[in-house]
Specification:
six-stranded mixed beta barrel; globular
């Protein structure tokens, strides 16, 4: 007695209630028994199965239209089947799920960060009504922050904004007894901030308007972390005296944990203003904030502030004719139009489309292998809409699992980025909460639905649009009627081309990153201790420090600081500059005058640094031509420069006497020419494709350097000198601040780490691309074998050798892979053709390697389908051909 095929029985149990499935199976077995009596033998078993299913269709439809009862987004059985498909096709689940997880994770992370940057949500009542007022100079296209004159007018006359306040950020040493915290961030702020933000102090009181009056005693409001660290969380901290820089200050309050308004501040002191007011563009820089008055709109505030600005421009045209005010949501980067908003989300959409294009070939291949199942369900009464819905649910299950994984990865990366990578030097704004938020998860859900629609609906439309009877007849031949059309073939070619380009880019980026790291490690950076140096100005909003007096005082203090450090055991050299070798670069466009005046040569990417006395000696680099700097070169009117050997190799073997100048931002105010007076050895910390980068050094005094970075060369581990360096600075001047005290090796690693991270990400992308490409080729060839089962068997029966059969299959794969490789190489060749620096030998080598890797992966992906093809039995194919005829 012949029973219905197992797959048909399992299908019925999956898509129908158990009672109905058992009834239908009983009917199918009765029909099967009838056919077995009249059509015995192996050759007719497939026809029996088909006839059984055709006859059973009427029985199914009479049982209350079994499939028609289940509509919508799918039944629980659909989701159950979707999870079964994940297990049944582990390759698709792994490759496709990983690609979708990366795409959805990137999209969610991008949306989360962009929301915090562009549209932050302040954790305060009426936080969405907080605003900040900016002034932009239309002539320079830069913000103007010297607005104390305008601020006093706005605070007096503006009616549509309330609690208008201002602040500026300063750095101060925090000293309490023998304990010193180097360079803490302080907000010098108006008392209106603490009426704007209704967060009461944990202890004591907030700042008051009286604290900002001229002559008022200095007071400070502590942040929670400093209070806990320096006062052991004791309430009796109120009333105690601490020293901020040179000023002894009384603690009046402690703010609760997490409070960091206006940005990421830990301490608050009053902003003292002159009672007589300020002239236009006079006084220190500030930032202005406030809250919309009840009933006021952003448009009304902008109109009112603009009217006040126009009045100021009429009174002071020389200073205000180009100034344009604007009122924005607090902490918003800029106001976005719908076009700008669309462009913000465009990268997310592109990543999702690329991922879906890659995974779509795998899903379509899986659908193509199930066309008999789909046709059978069609014959059993399922509507086209119902089948499309089920395939959509299956894709939704895959996308949902991938979304959970992607969100988990994105959440971890965001927290890692904030808490590990940025925590050392940068404290994020208080409104940035690392980790995914409900809005981000909802956004990821939308991406998941969109991805599932692309993956599930498009293949389903193609599958359900084929002729049902043709699919049923082909079931008897063991083949498939679906095929990869030009759309899916083009998607495969695009995927292979993109993978080829990723391989080339990953190779180039990885080789450069590893080369730079290897070259920098040859420099003894661990023997150097570096720190940013600054000094407090005797400047508040109420009084201005004399610039020349400050420069003289800072220069004298710094020279004494260097002298004391030089006496420490193990110190063999002390110098300074606006940066040290291996730290962040300053790169500018320049002109080199090689001969007569006016015959200049334009140069892009000229490295530059301003250096102090003993700079080259401290890094053990000698002058090989000309002379070193002397004290006269440090004057503001000096026009001399020293270049490195890389400059001499690239722009003239003997550059002594030549001139160089940097391109000014304002063409009407060109920068002066610098005469080259010396050539120094390459330091070896700025490698490029053509060797060491060309450098132009200028001499500078300590007071003129901005920023100023001290470099201390030692005979051993420089990190052990850190406490002593801080102690010397504290003992010399309470206003002398050291920031980021660390070895030069740590600074260099901070520059190299992002490049290595990009390299790792690129290699991961290449691996995923190769996996997806291999899966797509495997699926394509599997479908081809399924479609040509009878043909392959007949060719084998007629004497075709296995080698000939395999060659036919591999030829199709080779054409597909070769087309993608050729397209990828063509794009890469066009891209490098526009590069300034070309090495044809390296480019050719790279293209050969990428092509070989991709071709190898593609051909390996054909091994499985080829083995399946040569296992087809000729006898079965001949019997099937006889039955068909």
């Amino acid at each position: 007695m012949t029973r219905p095929p197992r797959w048909a029985r399992a299908l019925l149990r999956c898509v129908a209630p158990r009672s109905q499935a058992e009834d239908v199976l009983g009917d199918l077995e009765e029909v099967s028994r009838h056919h077995s009596q009249h059509h015995g033998g192996l050759a007719t078993r497939v026809r029996t199965a088909i006839d059984t299913l055709d006859m059973a269709a009427a029985l199914v439809r009479t049982r209350s239209e079994m499939f028609g009862r289940y509509g919508g987004m799918g039944t629980a059985q659909d989701y159950k089947l979707g999870f079964r498909m994940l297990i049944k096709y582990p390759g698709l689940t792994l490759a496709g799920g990983l690609a979708l997880a990366i795409a959805i994770g990137l999209g969610a992370g991008w949306y989360d960060v962009m929301s915090d940057v562009l549209h932050p949500r302040l954790p305060f009542p009426d936080g969405d009504r907080f605003v900040e007022v900016q002034i932009r100079n239309a002539a320079t296209n830069r913000n103007e922050y010297r607005v104390l004159h305008d601020f006093t007018a706005w605070r007096r006359d503006a009616k549509s904004v309330e609690e208008l306040g201002a602040y500026r950020t300063v750095e101060r040493n925090f000293i309490r007894g023998d304990v010193q915290l180097a360079s803490v961030t302080v907000a010098e702020i108006t008392a209106s901030a603490f009426r704007l933000v209704p967060v009461p102090p944990l202890h004591g009181r907030p700042l008051l308007d009286a604290d900002g009056a001229p002559g008022a005693p200095p007071v400070v409001l502590l942040g929670y972390d400093i209070w806990r660290q320096q006062f052991d969380s004791r309430p009796d901290a109120i009333g105690q005296t601490v020293q901020l820089g040179r000023t002894k200050t009384t603690v009046v309050g402690v703010m609760p944990q997490g409070f960091a308004f206006p940005v990421n501040h830990w301490l608050w002191i009053p902003l003292q203003l002159r009672p007589e007011g300020y002239a236009p563009l006079q006084g220190p820089t500030i930032q202005v904030f406030g809250r919309l008055a009840p009933g006021a709109t952003m448009a009304q505030v902008n109109a009112e502030i603009t009217a006040l600005a126009e009045r100021a421009a009429a009174a002071s045209p020389q200073t205000h004719q180009h100034l344009r005010p604007r009122v924005m949501a607090y902490a918003a980067e800029f106001d976005q139009t719908w076009i700008e908003l669309s462009l913000t989300h465009l990268p997310i959409i592109l990543v999702l489309i690329v991922a879906c294009a890659n995974v779509g070939t795998l899903v379509y291949a899986r659908t193509a292998t199930r066309d008999a199942e789909i046709a059978t369900r069609y014959a059993l009464g399922a509507s086209r809409r119902r089948i499309i819905g089920q395939l959509f649910v299956e894709a939704l299950v895959l996308a949902s699992v991938a979304a959970v994984v992607g969100l988990g990865i994105a959440n971890w990366v965001l927290k890692w980025g904030f808490n590990v990578y940025l925590a050392g030097d940068y404290v994020p704004p208080f409104w940035m909460d690392p980790g995914l938020k409900p809005g981000t998860i909802a956004y990821a859900a939308v991406l998941t639905l969109a991805g599932a629609a692309i993956l599930g609906i498009l293949p389903a439309i193609k599958a359900t649009g084929s002729n049902v009877q043709a699919q049923l007849r082909n079931l008897g031949a063991g083949g498939s009627t679906l095929r990869f059309g030009w759309v899916w073939t083009a998607a495969m070619v695009f995927q292979i081309a993109a993978t080829v380009m990723c391989i080339a880019l990953a190779m180039a980026i990885g080789e450069e990153a590893l080369r730079d790291t290897r070259i920098r490690r040859q420099f003894p950076a661990s023997q150097y201790l570096a720190a940013y140096v600054a000094m407090d100005r005797d400047t508040t909003a109420a009084r201005d420090d004399d610039e020349s007096a400050f420069r003289s005082r800072f220069d004298q203090t710094y020279q004494e600081f260097e002298r004391r450090i030089a006496k420490e055991p193990g110190v063999v050299g002390v110098t300074f500059g606006d940066r040290l070798p291996g730290m962040s670069l300053s790169v500018r466009d320049a002109e080199v005058d090689r001969s007569a005046p006016g015959a200049s040569h334009a140069v892009t990417d000229m490295w530059t640094a301003s250096v102090g006395p003993g700079y080259f000696e401290a890094f053990d680099k000698r002058i090989v031509a000309g002379r070193p700097f002397h004290e006269g070169d440090r004057a503001q009117t000096a026009s001399t420069a020293v270049v490195n050997q890389a400059f001499a190799r690239r722009y003239g073997a003997n550059p002594i006497g030549q001139r160089v100048r940097f391109v000014a931002e304002d063409p009407a105010k060109p920068e002066p020419w610098l005469e080259i007076v010396g050539v120094v050895q390459d330091v070896g910390m700025t490698p490029t494709d053509l060797g060491e980068a060309p450098y132009v050094y200028r001499a500078i005094s300590a007071a003129a350097a901005s920023p100023i970075v001290i470099g201390v060369r030692t005979t051993g581990d420089a990190a052990s000198l850190t406490p002593r360096l801080q102690s010397i600075a504290a003992g010399l001047d309470a206003g002398l601040r050291l920031g980021e005290v660390r070895t030069l090796a740590e600074f260099v690693w901070r520059e190299d780490a992002p490049n290595l991270m990009v390299t790792g990400g690129g290699m991961a992308a290449v691996g995923l691309g190769l996996l997806l490409s291999a899966g797509g080729i495997f699926s394509l060839m599997s479908v081809r074998v399924a479609r040509q089962t009878r043909e392959i068997g007949l060719r084998s029966a007629l004497g075709a050798s296995p080698q000939r059969l395999i060659a036919g299959l591999f030829t199709r794969a080779f054409v597909l892979v070769g087309s993608g490789v050729a397209a990828g190489n063509l794009v890469m060749m066009v891209a490098v053709a526009y590069a300034d620096q070309l090495d044809l030998g390296e480019i050719a080598q790279m293209l050969v390697i990428t092509s070989a890797v991709m071709l190898t992966v593609g051909l390996l992906a054909c091994v499985g389908p080829a083995r399946r093809a040569i296992r087809i039995q000729p006898a079965d194919a001949l019997k099937e051909a006889e039955r068909v005829t």
